[in-house]
Structure formats: structure tokens, C-alpha cells
Design goal:
mainly alpha; 12 helices; disordered N terminus
Length: 227
């Protein structure tokens, strides 16, 4: 990476810089331009980072049921969006001279709970999955949740999930307008789409790192001595 590029990058993770967005695009076009190559990258992620693989697998599967009309092509686009964001953020962290962190299981669960809006679902989540708030890996939590599939409570939660997802994506795009352009109006939606899958794959990864960085910011603030 050139010194000029490093100097021109703001010292914040978000909004994501133009150079990182380009790097993510180049990576995706080079590494997942066929179904076989996408499968290869999924297997690489599974071996390299099982927790991230299982998070992406479970969120993509849930979105396939709730938002993607059970479409394989949209679910594949979801994976493309997830890989796009992982590599875009890797470039952004590198430009800030930071090592890309590994979001914890707690952060994964927090993202999911944010989308089903625990405070306003009036106990529907607990009724759907009585053990969901136990301290367990994300994959096990999602397995418990999916046990309620096709029940009245699940349907209500799925509706909440879809509405909150759309609202939160809009907020991300308001803060990162160039990201919206790359995912919905650039070449990726033609070669790696549908855009619906690309957007939500990128969003689910983005949110993990946003929650992580927000947490680190609060830790720093709380360490400041008050007078």
C-alpha cells in the first residue's frame, strides 16, 4: 500500500473509504466469479474461521427463509456480499495500521437480538425459544430459534426481523453512500447479485464490526477519569 494512499485515509473505520471499497470489489471479482469458486471460498472460511463461517451460514439461511423467497441465487449473493465486506474491512483496517479483530459470539448474538428487537417483541422470542438467552455459541442459539419455525411466534419475529433489517440497512447506507453505490448500482450486482443478497451479506458482516468498534469506543470513554 502506498504512503499516499495511507495518508489520504481518515483515521476512522466508518464510513468506509473509497480505496477499501475498490479493494473489496477487486477481491470479489477475482475470487468468486463462478459458483465453484464461491464454494472454494466458503470452505476456506470454514477451515480458517469456523465461528465466522457458522455465523454467515446461519444468518444467510434465516434470510433465505424470511426475505429471499427460498432463492439459492440470492443466498449465494448473500455469501458474495459477506466476502465483499470481510475483504473491504480488512483493507480499511490495514489502511489504519490496525489488525482486523475477530468479533465475539456475544457480538453475533447482539446483532441478531437487535434485529428481532427484544424489547418490543413482548416475549415472543422467549416463547419461540425458551433457551435462547443462555450463554451458548451463536450456532446453537440459532438452532434453538429455528426450532420455532412455522409457529405463530416465529412468523411474528420474522416480520420484525425483516422490517428492522431494512431500516438498519438504510441507516448504514446513509452513513456510507458509496457503499450503497458499490452494492446496488455498480458492476457487482450484475456479476455477483442479486443486489438483495449482496446488500444483506455485506450488512450482517458490517454490523459485527460496527458493534465491536462501538464497544471499544465506550470502553475508552469509561476509562477517562471524571472530575
Amino acid at each position: 500500500m502506498s504512503p499516499e494512499r495511507r495518508t489520504s485515509t481518515p483515521f476512522t473505520l466508518f464510513p468506509i473509504g473509497e480505496s477499501a471499497l475498490k479493494d473489496g470489489t477487486i477481491w470479489l471479482q477475482k475470487n468468486t466469479h463462478s459458483p465453484d469458486m464461491l464454494d472454494t471460498e466458503r470452505n476456506k472460511l470454514k477451515n480458517r474461521d469456523p465461528a465466522m463461517y457458522l455465523y454467515t451460514f446461519n444468518m444467510g439461511f434465516l434470510r433465505r427463509l424470511v426475505q429471499f423467497d427460498d432463492s439459492t441465487s440470492t443466498e449465494n449473493a448473500y455469501w458474495n456480499g459477506a466476502f465483499y465486506m470481510l475483504n473491504t474491512l480488512e483493507s480499511q483496517y490495514e489502511s489504519l495500521w490496525k489488525e482486523q479483530p475477530a468479533p465475539s459470539q456475544d457480538i453475533m448474538r447482539t446483532h441478531f437480538f437487535n434485529l428481532v428487537d427484544v424489547e418490543s417483541n413482548h416475549g415472543a422470542l422467549l416463547a419461540c425459544s425458551p433457551e435462547i438467552f443462555e450463554n451458548k455459541p451463536f450456532r446453537d442459539m440459532m438452532s434453538d430459534f429455528m426450532d420455532g419455525y412455522k409457529t405463530e411466534n416465529f412468523d411474528a419475529l420474522a416480520k420484525n426481523f425483516a422490517i428492522n433489517s431494512q431500516s438498519n440497512v438504510n441507516k448504514v447506507f446513509e452513513e456510507n453512500p458509496e457503499l450503497e453505490r458499490y452494492l446496488t448500482r455498480g458492476s457487482l450486482q450484475q456479476t455477483h447479485g442479486p443486489a438483495l443478497g449482496l446488500v444483506y451479506g455485506a450488512f450482517d458482516i458490517y454490523e459485527l464490526f460496527r458493534i465491536y468498534e462501538d464497544g471499544k469506543l465506550w470502553e475508552k470513554k469509561l476509562e477517562i477519569e471524571t472530575r
